[in-house]
Amino acid sequence: MVRELTHFIGGQHVPGASGKFGDVFDPNIGQVQARVPLASKSEVEAVIADAEAAQPGWAATNPQKRARVMMKFLALVQDEMDSLAALLSSEHGKTIADAKGDIQRGLEVIEFAVGIPHLLKGEYTEGAGTGIDVYSMRQPLGVVAGITPFNFPAMIPLWKAGPALATGNAFVLKPSERDPSVPLRLAELFLEAGLPPGVFNVVNGDKEAVDTLLHDPRIKAVGFVGSTPIAQYIYETATANGKRAQCFGGAKNHAIVMPDADLDDVADQLIGAGYGSAGERCMAISVAVPVGEETADRLVAKLTERVHKLNVGRSDDLGADYGPLVGLDGVNRVNNYVQVGIDEGASLVVDGRGLTVEGGEDGFFVGATLFDNVTPEMRIYQEEIFGPVLTVVRAKDYEEGLRLANEHEYGNGVAIFTRDGDTARDFAARVQVGMVGINVPIPVPIAYYTFGGWKRSGFGDLNQHGPDSIRFYTKTKTVTQRWPEGERKAASPGHSASSAPNAFVIPTMD
Ligand code: NAD
């Protein structure tokens, strides 16, 4: 039976009223399992109104109490980890273990947000001038929106909602229409944790819903994660409408493999980083860059052996290394890129097309694919494939490997494998990429650092989570205060009154 999903507005499930729906698939079997309502402009405007009404009360709740709501939410999600992971996996197609990782990395940002009483402390200068003190405070923006991708349906909504809510904002989440059930369940759990109704809302939708959020003046900030063309569109539209925006886009992450690296270890790591979650990760390694022909020959041999052993299966198969892609469009895109790679002259070492999985004959599966002898002019090198395809670009030396990463239009993540500290240090200093791994293939920073790519992987000044997220979701107010002398001082022995500042000149801090 096909379930009909809802929105979550003002603390309750609200059925769609637009008459428009999107299909949510079970990617294991290629069948529609639910219909998700796609909100109209007027429905989105009603959500914003609810959020705007709820926000002042939440902002006036002291930070300790807001932190307690976050703590309760954390416990509720942890208690429900197994069922949430199963739900996530059933719509996305990632394995259960990977789905738990998706939720867990989201919860780490909630843990960070629990520290909000400390994170919100402002600055204070006593006696900046005679009788003058200066202090700053961070205040919430009001109603903010998050627009999130399909590939981390728990983690990315939580990366945005955690800091946004903890700082006293109301939040309107427009999750991916491909896997909206986990965000809807998270909304119920926020309510159960004590978040007032209307402070966290989920509105499902497509471009119409997003455009309404981008143009409505009551939305003060937009956080986006998704593909680069949409990230750029959202950044430009949101900022043209006077909003703050941080928009994170696609990626092509390189792993430079130096001749001194332990190639067995590197091959193991690249298999996980390249094919985990069917390559549907913005931090997946999609380009391996062995340095020197001998390193390349040995690495390709080790990768080939491991790729053949990968177990692709249903997402609920506990023995599967990875599951299906989220949709048939993804399968077609990957298959198309494999053909492009062949036509461009790359060497197809392992061809994953046409894979059939037992119990998932009509599912959206693609086997692991490996290309060697890929060159920078090829589309399979330049463009994001977002599937289980690892490409090998051979570099003659370290400088060429570094240059490849630096000249690529994307700059999300990068890794270097080496035993040499000097090379690693030089790499970290010179590489033009936002997140760097040294013998770590997927360097997603921990919650109290910030996450963000460079170049066309990120638009906006501030990163996600960590200290940047507190800055992004608050505005700074700076107060300069002077209290005129009162009776207490005037009455004290030996006191002579100080003169009032000249109101006709710009005050200086004497
Ligand atoms: P997507 O760009 O198709 O969709 C992302 C969101 O934008 C969804 O909520 C979708 O409904 C909305 N959207 C889609 N088209 C739109 C349009 N024309 N106008 C307005 N809104 C629109 O991305 P996706 O396929 O869901 O996710 C995969 C992409 O996300 C990949 O490119 C991946 O690299 C990227 N990603 C990046 C990061 C990062 O941190 N840099 C993290 C995860 C995923």
UniProtKB/TrEMBL annotation:
<protein>
    <recommendedName>
        <fullName>methylmalonate-semialdehyde dehydrogenase (CoA acylating)</fullName>
        <ecNumber>1.2.1.27</ecNumber>
    </recommendedName>
</protein>
<dbReference type="InterPro" id="IPR016160">
    <property type="entry name" value="Ald_DH_CS_CYS"/>
</dbReference>
<dbReference type="InterPro" id="IPR016163">
    <property type="entry name" value="Ald_DH_C"/>
</dbReference>
<feature type="compositionally biased region" description="Low complexity">
    <location>
        <begin position="491"/>
        <end position="503"/>
    </location>
</feature>
<dbReference type="GO" id="GO:0016491">
    <property type="term" value="F:oxidoreductase activity"/>
</dbReference>
<feature type="domain" description="Aldehyde dehydrogenase">
    <location>
        <begin position="17"/>
        <end position="479"/>
    </location>
</feature>
<feature type="region of interest" description="Disordered">
    <location>
        <begin position="481"/>
        <end position="510"/>
    </location>
</feature>
<dbReference type="InterPro" id="IPR015590">
    <property type="entry name" value="Aldehyde_DH_dom"/>
</dbReference>
<keyword id="KW-0520">NAD</keyword>
<dbReference type="InterPro" id="IPR016162">
    <property type="entry name" value="Ald_DH_N"/>
</dbReference>
<dbReference type="InterPro" id="IPR010061">
    <property type="entry name" value="MeMal-semiAld_DH"/>
</dbReference>
<dbReference type="Pfam" id="PF00171">
    <property type="entry name" value="Aldedh"/>
</dbReference>
<keyword id="KW-0560">Oxidoreductase</keyword>
<dbReference type="InterPro" id="IPR016161">
    <property type="entry name" value="Ald_DH/histidinol_DH"/>
</dbReference>
